[in-house]
Amino acid sequence: MRAGERFCLHIELVDDAAVVRVSGELDVVTSPQLRDAVQPLLGTVAEVAFDFAELRFIDSSGLAALARLPGVGGPSRVVIRGSSPMVRRVLEISQLSSLVAVED
């Protein structure tokens, strides 16, 4: 992520999976960008893996965008990896971790 950017999204296709690297802030302004970028992948790859290692902040809009992804478009597995302790705690409190796999 470059200086001054509050959100960055990079998608890499690896075999039959999509790795979605998200950095910055996932909020009411940026969550539509995530949804629009990821929805077309669902059902076309076996797994959509979010790399949240550089995600600094997530609000309820970001959580809602993620919650709507599993089951949309087909059988793709959705997984979140590399979350900071703060982001991981938000995923647990919101119970999103019961809908989407959350891994270290």
From the structure above, extract its key features.
104 residues, alpha/beta, Transcription Regulator spoIIAA, globular
Helix content: 10-25%
Top-tier CATH class: Alpha Beta
What does the average pLDDT come to?
A: 89
Task: Please identify, by name, the CATH architecture.
Answer: 2-Layer Sandwich
Question: How many structural units, i.e. domains?
Answer: 1
Coarse morphology: globular
Percentage of residues in strands: 35-45%
Please report the distance between the alpha carbons of the first and last residues. 22 Å
DSSP strand tally:
5
Assembly annotation? single chain
Largest sheet, order of strands side by side? 1-2-3-4-5
Describe it.
- It is a single chain.
- The chain has a five-stranded mixed β-sheet with strand order 1-2-3-4-5.
- The protein is of the alpha/beta class and 104 residues long.
- It has a single domain (7-103), classed as Transcription Regulator spoIIAA (2-Layer Sandwich), CATH 3.30.750.
- Helix 2 (60-67) links the parallel strand 3 (47-58) and strand 4 (77-81).
- The two termini are 22 Å apart.
- It has three helices and five strands, in the order E-E-H-E-H-E-H-E.
- It has helices spanning 31-38, 60-67, 85-93; strands spanning 7-14, 17-26, 47-58, 77-81, 101-103.
